[in-house]
Design goal:
Blueprint: E1 8-13, H1 16-32, E2 35-40, H2 48-55, E3 59-62, H3 66-75, E4 81-86, H4 94-97, E5 102-108, H5 120-126, E6 131-138, E7 148-155, H6 162-185, H7 220-230, E8 242-245, E9 248-259, E10 269-273, E11 278-286
Parallel strand pairs: 1-2, 1-4, 2-3, 4-5
Antiparallel strand pairs: 5-6, 6-7, 8-9, 9-11, 10-11
Length: 288
C-alpha cells in the first residue's frame, strides 16, 4: 500500500472534468487505501460524475443547500480529508479552509492569477486574448488565490466560441490532474505562490461581457467577438446578446461568418460586411 496523507477523498462538482477526476480518484483508492465519496451540490440532468459513482458503488450524496454542505464537511473532520473541487461553484468558508484535517484542491479555467472568479472563458475571448489555460491550485481563504499546483496553456482560435473553448479547457484540466494527483496524495506536489496585484479584478457570475449588448455601428469584429464570448451553445450561462434594429430591441438567435458569394435572403436577419471575403450573418428575434 502506497503512503498518503489522506484517509478520505471527496470529489465535488459536475461535468466532464469531475467525471474524469472521480474515475482517477476511484482507481487510485486501492493503491493508497483511502475511502472515496462524491458530492453533487449543483444538480444537473446529465451528470457524468454521478453516473460513474452510482455505477461503481461509490458513496454518493446530493446536498444542494450550502449550509447543509458546510455542516457535512465539518462533521467529517475526524478523518484527514482531501476535497477536490472540479467545476464546482460552492465557496468553501474560512472555517473549512483553516481546518487542519481538510485540504482542498480546486480547478480553475484560466491561468491564475489572471481571470479569477466566474466565466473566465468568456472574458478571455472578449478581451481578445490569444491564449489561456487552466490551473489546479490549493484553496485558501481568498477567491482563486491559493498556491498553484499545475497549469496548462492553449491557444484561442480567432473563431472560437465560449463553449468550444470550455471543451478544450476541460481536456487540459483532466490531463493536468492526472499528472499531479499522486503527488498531492503523497504531499509531494511542487507549488508556487501567485503574484497577486491589489487591483486584481474578480469576475462575478452576474457580469456579462459588454453588458450583453452592442450597437450595429460597432465594428463587425467587436460584434463577433461579443457574440462568441457569450455563446455557450445549449447551456444558458448568459442571455442572448441584444441590440436595436429599426427602432426595435432584438436578440441574436444565431450568427455565422459567411463568404460574400453566399449572400442569404432571409427574414429577421442582418448581414454586415466583416472583411474582404466574409460577411457576419445574424438571425434575430424581436424582444417583446
Amino acid at each position: 500500500m502506497k503512503s498518503t496523507l489522506f484517509q478520505k477523498v471527496i470529489v465535488i462538482g459536475y461535468g466532464i472534468v469531475t467525471g474524469d477526476v472521480l474515475e482517477l480518484v476511484h482507481e487510485k483508492s486501492s493503491e493508497y487505501g483511502y475511502c472515496v465519496e462524491y458530492i453533487e451540490h449543483e444538480i444537473h440532468e446529465f451528470n457524468q460524475a454521478k453516473k460513474y459513482a452510482q455505477k461503481n458503488d461509490i458513496v454518493c450524496r446530493t446536498i444542494p443547500e450550502k449550509e447543509e454542505l458546510t455542516e457535512y464537511f465539518e462533521d467529517g473532520t475526524d478523518l484527514k480529508t482531501l476535497i477536490i473541487s472540479a467545476s464546482n461553484n460552492y465557496l468553501f468558508p474560512s472555517r473549512l479552509v483553516g481546518n487542519e484535517n481538510i485540504t482542498i484542491v480546486n480547478f480553475h479555467n484560466a491561468l491564475l492569477p489572471d481571470y479569477p472568479g466566474r466565466n473566465a472563458p468568456s472574458w478571455v475571448i472578449y478581451d481578445n486574448c490569444k491564449s489561456t489555460g487552466i490551473t489546479w491550485h490549493y484553496v485558501s481563504t481568498g477567491i482563486d488565490d491559493g498556491d498553484i499546483i499545475i497549469q496548462k496553456e492553449c491557444e484561442i482560435g480567432e473563431d472560437e466560441r465560449a463553449y468550444e473553448l470550455v471543451a478544450k479547457l476541460m481536456g487540459l484540466a483532466s490531463e493536468a490532474f492526472a499528472e499531479v494527483y499522486c503527488q498531492v496524495l503523497e504531499g509531494k506536489a511542487f507549488t508556487r505562490k501567485q503574484g497577486i496585484s491589489e487591483a486584481r479584478r474578480i469576475y462575478k457570475s452576474y457580469e456579462i461581457p459588454g453588458e450583453g449588448s452592442f450597437e450595429l455601428s460597432d465594428t463587425p469584429w467587436d460584434i463577433y467577438k461579443l457574440l462568441r464570448s457569450m455563446d455557450y451553445g445549449k447551456n444558458d450561462i448568459f442571455p442572448q446578446a441584444v441590440t436595436t434594429y429599426n427602432n426595435e430591441k432584438i436578440k441574436i438567435k444565431r450568427y455565422k461568418l459567411i463568404k460574400k458569394e453566399e449572400e442569404r435572403a432571409s427574414s429577421n436577419a442582418i448581414t454586415i460586411p466583416y472583411d474582404e471575403e466574409r460577411n457576419l450573418f445574424m438571425k434575430y428575434e424581436t424582444v417583446i
